[in-house]
């Protein structure tokens, strides 16, 4: 066993903990199919969203952790449920009225409202694959419609017919009495209308592998469950898919957790061990409400990438996946800065510490060096103090602070500077509220300006700022720094103020203080 494997077997990083649990499943025998199969699911009724990213990113982290502790090959499947019926017309598509005639038809049979693909599902699946490819995920894509219609699911579907009573017993125990009367694990697709039908079965023939039901017009129909003519209800489909593919690991949100026992039972009834699971907590918006793609609250992938890197989003997803987290715009600066702090720490860490560092899991053990010589939070305050309109203005200040840096040598910093300007104009500027200083604060600010005018370059700026606060009796000292942020930057919090002065410039900071003391910032 290598040093990496040895240390990974005791690492407390959650991907390694989950990988070790999964490895125990193969203590006696490796998987008969020759690899360990990880799966993520996607509902193509809408475009990929930030939850999709989180699910694939976290699954990939566990997959890579597993590869670090085991020589068993792995595979990741992304499964699209595109045989599901379209239950409602999305409001964010062109000419939505044209889709109303296709309600309840499989998404793979609904015309593409964007008129670029053969079906609405094909369009959304293409968006999913482009999305996954953009982030460099390695996966095999499987379409549910193709899985059913190509016959790959036939063996399990016939087994579902054989085990119909057992599976129905599992399902009926979870349903209200009125629902039991019409429920069936099978959803036939009407040969006349093409719609997915939620109808009771009149009979299920295990010998012939057929079901009998009344079509929408009341005519009795008998059809085979194979060949994509029939699909499974979503809960039985979960367990049956695991059985058909031999899935070894799947994670999903807490909203699925109450169904885990159902999925597992169905998978076992069909003759296959249930996979290992990982249930993650849901994301909350700025008001603490669950994020929903239908309501549009929270933040999208495109929103995040407008203001920060994909790697910082991966870092956010890595953090405490079993804890509900607010996913809103104000989490971005902190995620960016913490991600780069971990990159810098990685360079000096031993292997044991590196395996516990989130960037090992984000970058498969080979993270890049950080070129963020200025923290993102500092860039935001710089943009705020200077009312920066573009990156060139930002670089005018950055070069004074870090003369060796340039857009060419520090492309990550250059991109972050542009994102900071964007973030400032969209979020910080509209919320800026300056206040006038109290008498104590006014005296301290006047003293700070005086000391900065006479600064000889030898005293550390942060020490100088701290000395002013102490001299003017601020206790606790955080009240002094809070006053600096609120009076000079129009914000309730900010960076190390000495570092901000070094970046913004001593003369510029003196001018900023003078403006505050004259009342120009409050009235402006």
Please sum up the structure shown:
The protein is of the alpha/beta class and 524 residues long.
Count of β-strands: 12
Main pleated-sheet profile: 5 strands, parallel
Per DSSP, the total helix count is 24
Please tell me what the overall shape is: elongated
Question: How does the SSE layout of this entry go?
Answer:
Elements: H1 3-8, H2 14-24, E1 36-42, H3 50-69, E2 74-80, H4 120-134, E3 140-143, H5 144-149, H6 154-162, H7 164-172, H8 177-180, E4 186-188, E5 203-205, E6 210-214, E7 220-224, E8 230-232, H9 234-245, E9 249-253, H10 260-269, E10 276-280, E11 283-284, H11 301-307, H12 310-318, E12 325-326, H13 332-346, H14 351-355, H15 358-362, H16 376-386, H17 391-401, H18 411-431, H19 439-453, H20 461-471, H21 478-489, H22 497-504, H23 506-518, H24 520-523
Parallel strand pairs: 1-2, 1-9, 2-3, 9-10, 11-12
Antiparallel strand pairs: 4-8, 5-6, 6-7
Provide structural commentary.
Helices cover 48% and strands 10% of the residues. With 524 residues, the chain is α/β, with parallel strands linked by helices. The relative contact order is 0.08. The mean pLDDT is 92. The strands form four sheets. It has a five-stranded parallel sheet with strand order 3-2-1-9-10. Strands 5-6-7 form a three-stranded antiparallel sheet, with no helix packed on it. Among the domains are: 3-150, HUPs (Rossmann fold), CATH 3.40.50.620; 376-431; 439-523, Arc Repressor Mutant, subunit A (Orthogonal Bundle).
């Amino acid at each position: 066993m290598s040093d990496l494997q040895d240390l990974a077997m005791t690492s407390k990083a959650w991907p390694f903990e989950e990988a070790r649990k999964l490895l125990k499943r193969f203590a006696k025998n490796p998987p008969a199919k020759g690899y360990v199969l990880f799966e993520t699911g996607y509902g193509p009724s809408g475009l990929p969203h930030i939850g999709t990213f989180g699910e694939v990113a976290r699954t990939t982290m566990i997959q890579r952790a597993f590869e670090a502790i085991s020589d068993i090959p792995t595979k990741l499947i992304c499964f699209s449920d595109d045989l599901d019926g379209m239950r409602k017309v999305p409001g964010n598509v062109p000419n939505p009225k044209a889709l109303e005639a296709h309600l309840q038809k499989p998404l793979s049979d609904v015309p593409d409202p964007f008129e670029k693909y053969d079906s609405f599902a094909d369009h959304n699946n293409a968006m999913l694959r482009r999305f996954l490819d953009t982030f460099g995920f390695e996966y095999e894509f499987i379409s549910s419609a193709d899985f059913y219609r190509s016959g790959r699911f036939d063996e399990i579907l016939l087994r579902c017919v054989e085990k119909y009573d057992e599976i129905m017993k599992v399902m009926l125990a979870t349903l209200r009495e009125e629902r039991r009367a019409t429920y069936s694990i099978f959803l036939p697709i009407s040969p006349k209308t093409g719609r997915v039908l939620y109808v009771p079965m009149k009979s299920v023939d295990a010998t012939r592998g057929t079901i009998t039901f009344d079509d929408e017009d009341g005519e009795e129909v008998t059809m085979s469950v194979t060949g994509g003519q029939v699909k499974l209800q979503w809960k039985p489909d979960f367990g049956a898919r695991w059985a058909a593919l031999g899935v070894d690991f799947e994670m999903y949100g807490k909203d699925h957790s109450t169904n885990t026992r159902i999925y597992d039972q169905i998978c076992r009834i069909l003759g296959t061990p249930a996979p290992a699971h990982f249930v993650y907590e849901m994301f909350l918006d700025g008001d603490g409400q669950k994020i929903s793609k239908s309501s549009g609250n929270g933040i999208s992938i495109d929103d995040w990438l407008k203001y920060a890197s994909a790697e910082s989003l991966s870092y956010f997803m890595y953090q405490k996946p079993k804890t509900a987290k607010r996913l809103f715009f104000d989490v971005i600066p902190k995620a960016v800065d913490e991600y780069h702090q971990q990159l810098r720490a990685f360079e000096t860490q031993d292997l044991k510490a590196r395996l516990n560092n989130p960037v090992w899991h984000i970058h498969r053990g080979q993270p890049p060096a950080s070129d963020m010589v200025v923290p993102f939070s500092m860039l935001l305050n710089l943009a705020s103090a200077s009312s920066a309109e573009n990156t060139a203005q930002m670089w005018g200040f950055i070069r004074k602070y870090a003369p060796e840096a340039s857009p060419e040598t520090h492309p990550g910093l250059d991109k972050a500077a542009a994102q900071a300007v964007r973030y400032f104009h969209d979020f910080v500027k509209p919320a800026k509220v300056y206040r006038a200083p109290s008498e104590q604060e006014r005296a301290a600010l006047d003293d700070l300006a005086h000391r900065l005018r006479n600064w000889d370059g030898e005293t550390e700026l942060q020490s100088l700022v701290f000395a002013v606060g102490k001299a003017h009796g601020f206790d606790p000292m955080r009240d002094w720094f809070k006053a600096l942020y609120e009076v000079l930057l129009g914000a309730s919090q900010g960076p190390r103020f000495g570092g901000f002065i070094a970046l913004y410039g001593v003369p510029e900071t003196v001018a900023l203080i003078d403006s505050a003391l004259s009342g120009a910032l409050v009235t402006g």
